[in-house]
């Protein structure tokens, strides 16, 4: 493993014409590392490392993502790099205004109504097919009604009805009226309500989808915001700045490291509530 000089400021750091990406590339070559080595250590694709060295900011997305990736790369090389100055000089693709809505949340009543409508359509279609088939092919149409046997009793048969026994005097039971308690039981409030809880400690992009691939929530959320979802409401999760989000799944804190690549974390919630990595 190559040792990096903690005090290096990067080759040709004093040159005003050397771009930030070029300084990263020269520092990497001076440390004897390949792009694949850097990608492995930073847990990001090699194409992102190449885009950083080529100053190809448009391939990396929003400014918040570019800033985090530049800082991670410079920290690995122990390079004194002014990331903000790099971004000021570079042309970073802005996030399209239509996508920068706070979030697009589908109301719960609307989802319930859609599910009820689908079930009603299914029931109507089933009845429309089953009733005619039953009516035209039912064997009951060709059967004759069975003869009803007379239940009249012949006159010559005397029916002796036993005299009703005189009821014995029942003991008097004194009942004590039951008075319902008027004190309602205090409702238990659990701070961990919801099978999926997202708490934002910093600004992060979020994309949530249900099992049918419909968007449940999508947008850029600020620090201090929180989202809670019930079981089955969310099936796929994508977090743009995973380090700024605390995730609780089924009442337990979730470590995002196994699901992260760079600063982005992706995972899915299976039908039994377990968390699995999301396919690319």
Automatic annotation (TrEMBL):
GO molecular function terms attached to this record: DNA binding
Record keywords: Membrane, Transmembrane, Transmembrane helix
One Pfam family of this chain: HTH_25
Domain Cytoskeleton protein RodZ-like C-terminal: 197-268
Transmembrane region(s): 120-137
InterPro entries (alphabetical): Bact_Cytoskel_RodZ, Cro/C1-type_HTH, Lambda_DNA-bd_dom_sf, RodZ-like_C
Name of the protein described by the UniProt record: Helix-turn-helix domain-containing protein
Protein species of origin: Marilutibacter aestuarii
């Amino acid at each position: 493993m190559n040792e990096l000089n903690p005090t290096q400021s990067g080759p040709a750091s004093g040159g005003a014409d050397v771009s930030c990406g070029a300084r990263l590339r020269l520092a990497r070559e001076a440390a004897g590392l390949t792009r694949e080595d850097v990608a492995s250590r930073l847990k990001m694709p090699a194409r992102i490392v190449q885009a950083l060295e080529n100053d190809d900011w448009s391939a990396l997305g929003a400014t918040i993502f570019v800033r985090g990736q530049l800082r991670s790369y410079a920290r690995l090389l122990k390079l004194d790099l002014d990331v903000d100055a790099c971004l000021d000089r570079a042309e970073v693709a802005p996030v399209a205004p239509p996508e920068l809505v706070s979030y697009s949340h589908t109301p719960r009543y609307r989802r319930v109504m859609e599910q009820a409508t689908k079930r009603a359509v299914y029931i109507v279609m089933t009845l429309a097919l089953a009733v005619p088939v039953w009516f035209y092919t039912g064997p009951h149409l060709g059967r004759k009604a069975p003869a009803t046997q007379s239940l009249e009793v012949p006159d010559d048969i005397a029916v002796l009805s036993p005299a009703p026994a005189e009821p014995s005097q029942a003991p008097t039971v004194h009942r004590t009226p039951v008075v319902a308690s008027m004190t309602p039981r205090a409702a238990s409030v659990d701070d961990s309500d919801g099978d999926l809880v997202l708490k934002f400690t910093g600004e992060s992009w979020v994309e949530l989808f249900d099992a049918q691939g419909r968007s449940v929530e999508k947008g850029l959320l600020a620090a201090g915001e929180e989202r809670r979802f019930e079981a089955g409401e969310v099936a796929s999760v994508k977090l743009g700045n995973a380090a700024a989000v605390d995730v609780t799944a089924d009442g337990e804190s979730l470590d995002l490291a196994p699901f992260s690549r760079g600063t982005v974390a992706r995972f899915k919630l299976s039908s039994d509530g377990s968390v699995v990595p999301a396919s690319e």
